[in-house]
Amino acid sequence: MLATDGVSTLGLAPLREDDRFDVVVIADSTRADFDEALSVASGLIVRSATKVREPMFERAPLLKVVGRAGVGVDNIDLNTASERGIAVMNAPAGNTVSAAELTMALILSAARWVPEADRSIREGKWERARLRGMELRGKMLGLIGAGRIGSEVAVRCRAFGMDVIAYDPFLSQERAHELRLNLVGLDDVLKNADVISLHVPLTDETRGLIAESSLEKMKNDALVVNASRGGVIDETALAAALVNGSIAGAALDVYETEPIPTDSALRDAPNLILTPHLGASTKEAQIHVAREVAEAIIAVLAHGDVSGAVNAAEISGATGLS
């Protein structure tokens, strides 16, 4: 079993404490000894830095499972993995609280101009009048996507006195009732929400979901927060909306290209908070996601159970120890 990208060693305890597995940890997948270990590995655990594409699969003839210590599997070639019968596991629950808390930090920072206020004071200014923000109490949160993270954000926003509406075509009315969410159409969220928070995967259907036409439907004093996946928002359109003042502000933790290109329009957009994909960047989350994926890999290699694989429908359940 090979782990890279600085996966939490504490979270790998289920594998390290199991005598059936020999765990090798090499933090940097560009090192020569990584390729050597990969050539005999039956399992591989990565975070987001390592791109598991066809060339890497070719260097791993014994590989049976790839684990992503996190939610998204954008950095793993699912088609090639499926063609080779390799299960791809992720950790959808481990970073839920950390991502929800970061979303709240972004919402509060945007609502109260926190980064701008800090910058202003460091420049020797005292701009209380210019940096007048808004209370969250009595405002409307509009969720786009109400899965694990979105529903946790809803809980926290209700604690601030916000009302919550949500657009999620995959959420049943029964589940929405359990979560105390008022399901509405996408246009209803765009037109009525004071704060719009995105919590969706990047798919063909969600790519560019928030584009110029969507931004035009929002309130002039609306805030937009995206801590889900880059590409869900048209970044050029968002920057333009901030420049012309058609929305009040935005906060992003994810981007179409990471790191952000030096010529990105986002860098010069006003009233915009940018963080470097910090959603899962807490000690607790990294332990949780590593443990979650470690346990999933044990299920695959020790028991041939691929039911939790993101590509389960494309592969057989014949995987076992070697």
Describe the protein's architecture and organization.
This protein is an alpha/beta fold and 322 residues long. It has 2 domains: 2-94 and 282-314, Rossmann fold; 96-274, Rossmann fold (3-Layer(aba) Sandwich), CATH 3.40.50. The protein is 34% helix and 13% strand. It is built from 12 helices and 12 strands. A 7-stranded parallel sheet has the order 8-7-6-9-10-11-12, sandwiched between helices. Strands 2-1-3-4-5 form a 5-stranded parallel sheet, sandwiched between helices. Helix 7 (148-159) links the parallel strand 6 (140-144) and strand 7 (163-167). Helix 5 (96-111) packs across helix 7 (148-159). The protein is globular. The relative contact order is 0.16. Mean pLDDT is 95; it is low at 317-322.
